[in-house]
Design a protein that fits this description.
Largest sheet: 8 strands, parallel, barrel
Structural class: alpha/beta
Number of strands: 8
CATH topology: TIM Barrel
Shape: globular
Bound molecules: erythose-4-phosphate
CATH class: Alpha Beta
CATH superfamily: Aldolase class I
Distance between the termini: 41 Å
Length: 222
């Protein structure tokens, strides 16, 4: 199972990467613009924070076939390995995904709103399929659709891995983890909410206070 940080906030990636075994970082054009930095500069900074085994994803901005191919090749050249290009699943995007895969590049099909779009992206050879869970929930049963998508991939034995994206809260993440989602990308604020529970702090304070009262110190041994 792979867990990615969905962000181009270098400080947030540094903070979370310090104590969580993350598998890499995903970005999209909006996320990159929010960094306030030049795209290549911020991708370089994120890459420096990652080991060679961790993955980095960046999305094409071009919408025409040749433009998608050119940007896809450029993006994948940014790292020696584990650099993936994200391509939206438009008609042109599906065609470009097949070509980029023929060239041996790593591809994530993005902007997926239905299991059927994902099916075609998997047929085109995409390595990852990114359904936009929260946005899908605006149109109906987003969780149910993504679960159907995960099952469809298993039924046909596609190599493509579902990388669920677009989460607004921990409840949405929980629903997909329970469903066995193979990979997921989550924004820093939602990851923090997954980890930090006030009950844990209260319990630890209680343990420390009791230890202090009995042994006069806040450490296991003197
Ligand atoms: C993945 O990187 C997607 O682009 C991202 O999760 C979309 O999230 P949003 O719906 O919050 O824009």
């Amino acid at each position: 199972m792979e867990f990615f940080i969905d962000s181009a906030d270098v400080e947030a990636i540094k903070e979370l990467g310090d104590f969580l075994p993350i598998d890499g970082v995903t970005t999209n054009p909006t996320i990159i613009t929010k960094s306030g930095k030049d795209p290549l500069e911020v991708l370089g900074q994120i890459s420096e924070l990652l080991s060679d085994d961790q993955k980095l994803f960046a999305q094409v901005v071009a919408t025409d076939y040749e433009g998608i191919l050119a940007e896809g090749r450029r993006i994948c050249s940014l790292r020696e390995r584990n650099m993936f290009v994200k391509v939206p699943v438009s008609r042109t995007g599906l065609k470009a995904i097949a070509t980029l895969k023929e060239e041996g590049l790593g591809v994530l099909a993005t902007g997926i709103y239905s299991p059927e779009q994902a099916f075609w992206a998997a047929k085109a050879g995409a390595d990852y399929l990114a359904p936009y869970l929260n946005r899908m929930c605006n149109y109906g049963d987003g969780v149910g659709q993504v679960v159907d998508l995960i099952e469809t991939m298993a039924i046909y034995g596609f190599d493509a891995k579902v990388c669920a994206a677009s989460f607004k809260n921990v409840e949405q993440v929980h629903a997909l983890l329970v469903a066995g989602v193979p990979s997921i990308t989550v924004a820093p604020e939602v990851i923090r909410s997954m980890v930090d529970h006030p009950g844990t702090g209260i319990a630890v304070d209680e343990f420390t206070a009791n230890w202090q009262a009995s042994y006069g110190r806040a450490a296991f041994e003197a």
